[in-house]
Design goal:
The chain is α/β, with parallel strands linked by helices. It has helices at 6-14, 20-34, 46-62, 106-113, 156-163, 180-186, 218-228, 264-279, 294-308, 320-329, 334-357, 398-402, 431-445, 454-464, and strands spanning 40-43, 76-80, 117-122, 142-143, 146-150, 169-174, 189-192, 210-215, 253-256, 283-286, 360-364, 406-413, 419-425. It contains 14 helices and 13 strands. The protein is globular, with a radius of gyration of 21 Å.
Length: 465
């Protein structure tokens, strides 16, 4: 089973060392035999094999020209279960009746048009509410490096699938960190594009949610992101995040943020990234971003939106943690939502001022190591009644509120053998900048050791628990 990602798969296919059908069959077999991590909730069968056969026919007919207008021809991708797929159910991680869409979400359609083969739907928390992939529909998604621990969320299935080699790349969503958190926990790359760069139909009324890729390298994530980007008539916000301009990348000003509560282990690992950026000639300065009341404002915005879309008769089907959020949302007045939106605008103003001084911001993606599988957060934030379900990820949700592009990439392993990620953040629209710097940093840091095969990892975890 190839676990080296999209670029490696394309190389084998172009050289004729592998057929698309062989590749897709091996991925489907690996999912059926190895997905003890709980990465998938639905697996494509005949539809994926038919797509593979069509791809092979195209390659036989056109040779290397087959990739000219289909840059993802033959690679396998997974789709988070929040997004519509025409050939697989979309459950959104919920016990509510399944949705059988008649068409793909715009980003999914673009992946297929570029030649990618969708192999399945990856696990999410219910409607993506939590940053840990837990819920009533499926067992919790487990971390490929230690299955006793969480893969993060809510795109935890996507992160686990990419890390374990159960797809070449994945499509996730990020409403408050849901791409970048599992990327950090699972040791892969997660890219949250600028808000509006990738069309999201149907996105949330709170205008926090982004779609983006998880992959094994920054180059893979950039290619996937390029394919799915661009305006779409179904999303009036799409096309907003496309303001890239050429600039000198040899000596950037980078503001380094260290959040309170960052563990010593995560700090040690991410210091490697800071030193590597400095060694590349960038000027690193420690910066403190003062943003009062961001988290309570986020809670009110998210909870009000969740409550608006959840009628009382659905309560018996809802995950208990999400239900606590919904119930809080029913207490949030219109005036409170407006005050929260004022906080959001203040945050945007503050960070625009910061970005006037720096080309990029950098920080640990998550200040803590992965916590227990099945929990919605570390012990101090694990009770959903406390409404702290995102408070433990202070480096993620602010950049959903501002719409800025961000990339999480592996910085290394802690002493416990767990991945820790470093996050780079650019001004809105400067996606090419943040991806280019992330790619150069990735080259400097080098690859992580691959996680053990899933079955082996689970056996080891059971023996040491």
């Amino acid at each position: 089973m190839n676990a080296r990602g999209l670029a490696h798969t394309k190389h084998l296919l172009r050289r004729g060392e592998l057929s698309v059908l062989e590749h897709v069959q091996s991925v489907l077999t690996a999912i059926h035999e190895q997905d003890v991590l709980g990465a998938y909730v639905a697996v494509a069968g005949d539809s994926a094999l038919r797509a593979a056969e069509a791809a092979d026919a195209r390659i036989r007919a056109r040779g290397v020209e087959a990739w000219w207008d289909m840059p993802l021809l033959g690679v396998t991708v997974s789709v988070k279960d929040l997004l519509q797929t025409r050939d697989l159910p979309t459950t959104r991680g919920s016990l509510l009746p399944n949705d059988r869409p008649r068409e793909d979400a715009p980003a999914v359609a673009r992946l297929r048009a570029a030649g990618a083969v969708v192999v399945g739907k990856t696990t999410t928390s219910e409607y993506g509410w939590s940053a840990s992939t837990v819920g009533r529909l499926a067992p919790p998604t487990r971390n490929p490096y230690d299955p006793r621990l969480s893969a993060g969320g809510s795109s935890g299935g996507a992160g686990a699938a990419v890390a374990a080699g159960l797809c070449d790349g994945a499509l996730g969503t990020d409403g408050s960190g849901s791409i970048r958190i599992p990327a950090a926990f699972c040791g892969v790359v997660g890219y949250k594009p600028s808000f509006g760069r990738v069309p999201y139909y149907r996105g949330g009324a709170e205008r926090l949610a982004h779609q983006g890729p998880l992959a094994r390298s920054v180059a893979d994530a950039a290619l996937l992101g390029q394919v799915i980007s661009g305006p779409h008539p179904d999303d009036p916000d799409s096309g907003l995040g496309s303001l890239d301009a050429p600039r000198d990348l040899r000596a950037l000003r980078i503001g380094w943020i260290e959040y309170q509560g960052t563990t010593d282990e995560v700090r040690k690992v991410t210091e490697r990234a800071k030193d590597a950026l400095a060694a590349q000639g960038h000027r690193i300065e420690h910066v403190e971003v003062r943003c009062n009341d961001i988290y309570p404002a986020l809670v009110d915005i998210v909870a009000a939106s969740e409550a608006a879309g959840t009628p009382p008769e659905h309560e018996e089907f809802i995950d208990q943690g999400r239900l606590e959020v919904v119930r809080h949302g029913r207490t949030v007045s219109g005036a409170a939502v407006m005050r929260a939106e004022e906080v959001r605008q203040s945050l945007r103003t503050t960070l625009r001022s910061v970005m006037d001084r720096y080309d990029l911001l950098a920080m640990a993606t998550v200040p803590e190591e992965p916590f227990e599988a099945g929990a919605i957060g570390p012990a101090w934030a694990a009770d959903p009644r406390d409404l702290l379900w995102l408070a433990w990820a202070p480096a993620s949700y602010p950049f959903n509120m501002t719409g800025q592009p961000a990339v999480s990439l592996p910085a290394g392993l802690t002493a416990s053998g767990l991945p820790a990620g470093v996050q780079l953040v650019a001004p809105v629209g400067a996606d090419d900048l943040v991806l280019t710097v992330a790619r150069r940093l990735e080259e400097e840091l080098g690859p992580l050791p691959a996680p053990p095969p899933a079955l082996t990892a689970l056996s080891l975890a059971e023996r040491t628990s």
